[in-house]
Amino acid sequence: MVITADDRSVALCRILLGLKLRRLREGKGLKASAVAKRFGWSTARMTRLETKMTAVEVGDVRLLCDLYEVSRELRDELESYALISKTGKGWWDAKSLKQTVPEWFRANIGLEAAARRIWIYQSEFVPGLAQVLGYAMAILGLSDADEETIDRHAEVRATRQSILTRPDGAPDVMMTLNEAVIRRPVGGADVMRQQLERLSELAQQPNISVKILPFSAGAHPAMHGPFTIWGFDDEIVGDLAYLENLVDGGVLSDVELVAPFIAAFEQLERLAATEEQSLAMIQSTAAAL
Questions:
Q1: What is the sign, positive or negative, of the torsion defined by CA atoms of 125, 182, 163, 146?
Q2: Whole-model pTM?
Q3: Of 20, 128, 183, 272, which is the most exposed, with the fewest CB atoms less than 10 Å away?
């Protein structure tokens, strides 16, 4: 599987459509439940239209545009987004993945592929974008998933990583990792050594920064857990915060909700070791295995 610019277009169209529809509704002072009732829809359907980054029917967009009294120009824009969201397919929409990779995760892969800036704080394990196969399999093997599902998820993680070296504009990536991430020997010594060597390689790429938050930093603003921030050049999208737990993941798009995560990450960057110090920590840990 290969990630293309078209994949990024599909993801951006889906999120732009949802954000603009929600802001148009809010601009009219309407609740999602009231709009849903007007058209005989469930509230869940409205939520899906505005937040789930999935395919949307052009007919639904037309109904909403009529209700919100949208200009002809904006109506054409929203309908084009809907058409692309319905007919365009990213690699994560492949039929082979639908049975093993949940919809919420596939939608978020699209956003990751579309982002121009990716900031990651991880407290327990190496982020999926940087995992080698052995490390990924050790993490995935902790679940009760069957072998086919684990293999599919490992394949997805490997495919996601191609954005890091994308020739037509790889994202700028900043990873801040709790020191525990490089100290915990996931998968055994050999696997962990390979993983640390991979981190070392990535840390030396011009578009990637890897910093270690040392234990000596003490208390820090992300002790609540890991998070990711995706940054987009489109001012409507701006920055999104992505949070994931054991069973699902979700995206925050409201500026006032995303801002604390941006502030926390910026503080983590100040508390973390420098890139040079972090690289030395990674390499010395690998050498000791």
A1: negative
A2: 0.83
A3: 183
